[in-house]
Design brief:
- The protein is an alpha+beta fold and 679 residues long.
- Helices cover 30% and strands 20% of the residues.
- The strands form eight sheets. Strands 2-1-3-6-14-13-12-8-10-9 form a ten-stranded mixed β-sheet.
- It is globular.
- Residues 1-24 and 542-550 have low confidence and may be disordered.
Amino acid sequence: MKLRTIILSLATLLLAAPLQAKDRTITKSPKQISVLYLGGTSDWNNGEMGTEKKFQNAKDYETSVQARTKAFGDLLRKHFGRVTVMAAKDYKPAMSNRYDVTIFDGCPPRLTERKYIRDKEGKITGAIPATYLPADYHAASITIAEMGEYISQPLGIKNDWYCLCLDANAHSMNLQHPIFKGPFKTKITLHKEPTPEDAFHYTYFFDHPLPDSVMMWTVQKEGYKNDKYFRIGMVSRPWGYEEGGESENISSGVCAKTINAVALGRHGNFFTWGFSASPLYMTDEAKIVFCNVVAYMANHKQAPVARKYNEHIATDDYIKEKIYLCRKSSYDQRRQEDSIFYDNIRKGYEVAMAKQQRGDSLNAEDKMYMEYYNPNQKLRTYGEYLKFYEGKLYDIFGEDETEYIRYYKKYGSYLYGGEGFYELSLDQDAWAWKIPVGDIRLLDRAVSELERGGDMDRAHRVLTRYTLCEWKTPQEWRQWLNQYRSRIFFSKSGGWFYLISGDPNLPGNDYSVVQKRKDAKAKAEAAQAQQATQNAATNQAEATQEANGESSVQDLSPTNPVNLLAEAKKQGKQVNISITFDFYPGYHVYAKVGADDPYIPVSIDVEMPQGAKLNDVALPKGKPFGGKDTEIYDSKTTIVKTLICNTIPQEIKVKVGYQTCDDKSCLPPVERTFNLKVK
């Protein structure tokens, strides 16, 4: 049950097919293939981001890392001619030039650090991730589990972090794909299992009902669902994954997301093996398929053309979600969930009040209900719900769900989503010409307008919005369009650009143009010099604030969905440490995670001063999530920990870990450290 969204002209398909077929041909025998394996991870979680610890000391953990590394080395040496095994921390990108395939099972040294993007007022509006590989990296590579996010996604590879929630079984496999055929032969044993429960939360993405059961293939003998310590796998977003004929969604797997989330997939020279297990815990069949992936990738050294630099870019599929969200039935379901949560809070409060009136002592949970119960708590109205999800359209359509549906169905082909956080807006230029976005006729019309001196402004807007070209004359635009017409494809996941298949270096494929345009726009702003000074001052102020033990509080937005405020205040012989979470609407962190869920709960670790002890304090109760034991915080919440000290310290070090999610996807886990000055 895979969603195949391929936006191509017939001419592009005809061209891409023979290239793809040629590309898939294995030109070397396995014994001629050289492999570089980069290790550094374990088969087990060990306290990362709030997970329970498998090992009690660093030596035992390192032993597990070495065992995993050896298992991969043994498997690879058995099947391939030249295999080098080393720690990822010792890797340099140039090393990959000496091998047919590089396998990333650990993070190499960073080439650049994470950087924050700020607006004119100095507020954080986004972030540029750390990079581990140079922009021109083109070696055939395989990333295991979350390494896809860390290693390849900063390069614009589609193997992003949709969810760290992949378990042990694959489903919806394309069993005709070469990795299931050879060069090493294996039997793929299938068994029918119920469709993963979480997949039914996303049925609105599909034009057909999901089946009650699917055929599954067991990839690994262990998984986080049967062992809470076992490492969790990663799936990538499926929307627009297969655009352009240079990427393949080969298999999904049991996870907490859509039934077509990518567990096994290739984008250009990168293959994501989303499952987490080493050969120690792989099935015999999976070991063979993994080796087939290595052989398959030995012939895929071509870097992709389309680059997905924005993980949260909107595609056609998001229109389906917008149609779903605007419906009254969607609101009613959400309201019911909220109502159950608030009712549970009320019942807990009533129990606590009864105990207090009887003179009974209150436990930590009772006190929590007493503190957090709000008799004036109101459920969000349908109008408030629509205003949040539909934005400006609410001012036009109000609570008329039929108007929203009509809008998306009428204008869906003319919507533009090239920027922002799952943003879609009507392209007035495409609508004026009645040419759908992505139709090559849009380019033809724009170039024709330039040639005849017609609607020049509209033509320039269209060409700037949808291409990476910087031609100066109508003649240059026409020559480019005519020369590459048969190879042009449109990529929404790649930024909503018309691109040229085949070679990333062809004119029209240069993503550096995006930054050049941003720089040019910045230079055109009169206060640029002054702005630089203001930004510097803001950065210094935030650095000082952080040093004093408080987070730099920014305006909440989809790019900054969580604010943290950390403080430490003395009271007699104790220090109250408070961590306050504040949220952009629609986002949450996990207060508690049930045994069957893969999410990462909030963790607060205090570095204990000598002679101090930490009082046991119940965490604020969260809102039930998913109908299981999992609970979330999605509104302003303060967690207080009390430290009993003989001598009050001047400073206390606190580490806060959490994972932020919305209804569509989860962001990578975050860990923040505060050196709190005791006030």
